[in-house]
Amino acid sequence: MTTSSPHSLRSDMSLGDIVNMAPRLAVRLERLDLDYCCGGATTLADACQANDLDPESVIVELEAHLGTDDTPAPWVSMGAVELVDHLVGTHHRYLWDELPRLQALVEKVNGVHGERHRELADIAACFAAIRADVEPHLEKEERILFPAIGELFTAADTPTFGFGSMGNPISMMLREHDDLGELLRRLRALTTDYTPPADGCASYSALFSGLEELEADTHLHVHKENNLLFPQVLEREQQRVS
C-alpha cells in the first residue's frame, strides 16, 4: 500500500528521487543503510523490506528532518554538460585533494596506534583498495567518458566513438560504482560506523571523520552520475541515432 505524507514522501518513491527532492535526507538514508546511490532506482518500500524496516516509520523519521524551505538542489535540473562540469569541479576535485590527505593520515594513525588496534591494518588496506579503484576511475571519466558526453550534446553531426555505444563505458562505470560501494561498506564495518576508540588521539578522530565524509561525498557523487547524468546521456544517444 502506498503511504502519503504532507511533504509528498511516499513509499513508492525511489530512493534517488527522495534525495533529489530533499538532498538533506541523503544522510538520513545513509544512517538507515538505505542505498540511494547505486540503489537509487529502488523504491523506499522495497529498500525497507530488504532491510527489515517499516516504510511508514521510515517516512515519519525522514519527515522529521525536512524543513519547510526544502527544495531540490540546483544539480537536479542541470543538463548533462553542466552536470559534468559540476561533477568535475565538485566531487572529482574533492577526491583528488582528499585521497592523498587521508592516505597520509591513515599511515600516521596506523603507525602510532597499530600495535594496540590491529584493525587499523585492515582499515589501511581497505582505504588503499578504495584509492586504487577511485583514481583510475576518475581518469577514465575525465579523459574519455566526459569529453564524449560533451561531444554527444554539442556536436552538429552525430558523433561516433571508438568504444561504440555510450552504454559500453557507462556499464563499466556502473560496475565500478558497485565495487566501490562494497569497499565503502567494508570500511564502515571496519571502523564500527566511524567511531574512534576511547584511547584514540585527535588524529585518530580526524581520520575517522574524514573517512565518513569521504563516504558521504562519494554516495552523493555516485547518485548524481547513476541517477541523473547517465540516464540523460543514454536518452540523448537514442535520440541522435533514431
Architecture overview:
With 242 residues, the protein is mainly α. It folds into 2 domains: 1-72, SP0561-like, CATH 1.10.3910; 74-241, no CATH class. It is built from 8 helices and no strands. The relative contact order is 0.14. The model is unreliable at 1-6 (pLDDT under 50).
Quick description:
The chain has about 240 residues and is mostly helical.
What key phrases describe this protein's structure?
242 residues, mainly alpha, SP0561-like, 2 domains, 8 helices
Number of helices: 8
H/E element sequence: HHHHHHHH
Number of domains: 2
Low-confidence stretches: 1-6
Q: Helices and strands in order, then pairings?
A:
Blueprint: H1 15-21, H2 25-31, H3 44-50, H4 55-63, H5 80-113, H6 119-154, H7 167-190, H8 202-241
Helix pairs in contact: 5-6, 5-8, 6-7, 7-8
